[in-house]
Amino acid sequence: MVLDRDGVINYDSDKYIKSADEFIPLPGSLDAISTLHRVGYKIIVATNQSGLARGVFDEYALAKIHSKLSSMVEEAGGLITGVLYCPHLPNEGCKCRKPSTGLLVQAEKEFGVSLKGCQFIGDSLSDLRSALAFGMKPVLVRTGKGKKTEKTLSMSKLPPIAVFDNLRLAIDDLVATEG
Peptide bond before 160: cis, by omega within 30 degrees of 0? Predict the structure, then answer.
């Protein structure tokens, strides 16, 4: 299972999440991740973090944010297998920035998993396109940029995509369907 970070797990900000203090989980997101862990999923977070390239925050601040995320998930009874991020600007042409699939390739290599056919839950077209390009099942949540993204789906030429109000409801549906 792959999750985007900002807008899916935590509140997003147009000014970036720059410190651990600014990392505030969305209601139900930590419990949802814990549920995934309890039913046997490995959870990988894949996130674009161009704030690094822009000098808005540094690697140390990002590591503190991800440490807080992991600790909060563990306190809720879950476990995040890993957090991968793209530090580049959108116009740099790297292979790791979503909608490219470099983070997903890296996840398979680093964590010894196959993501083909797995779900990728995100709030943006770049998340959905990355999932589809890698043979994953994209799921859209309406949190973060999700409501705005949902309005563009009909014009995006993407196949039908499951849409849920938030991560908790997406995970509840997944567990009910597979359980």
Answer: no
Which residues participate in catalysis according to the annotation? 4, 6
* Residue 179 pLDDT greater than 80, yes or no: no
* Of 63, 114, 107, 99, residue with least CA distance to 81: 107
pTM, two decimal places: 0.97
Distance CA(76)–CA(146), nearest Å, equals: 25
Angle between helices 59-75 and 29-38 (to 10 degrees): 70
pLDDT the model gives residue 82: 98
pLDDT, the chain, mean = 97
Q: Which domains does the chain have, with CATH numbers?
A: 2-178 (3.40.50.1000)
Angle in degrees, 0-180, between the axes of helices 167-178 and 29-38, rounded to the nearest 10: 20
Q: What digits encode the pLDDT tens for the residues 9-48?
A: 999 999 999 999 999 999 999 999 999 999 999 999 999 9
User: Contact 32/170 with Cβ under 8 angstroms?
Assistant: yes
Q: Give the N- to C-terminal CA distance of the chain in Å, as an integer.
A: 16
Distances (CA, A) of 178 to 10, 87, 172, 173: 26, 35, 10, 9
**Residue whose token pair is 């949190």:** 143
Rounded CA-CA distance 33/30 in Å is: 5
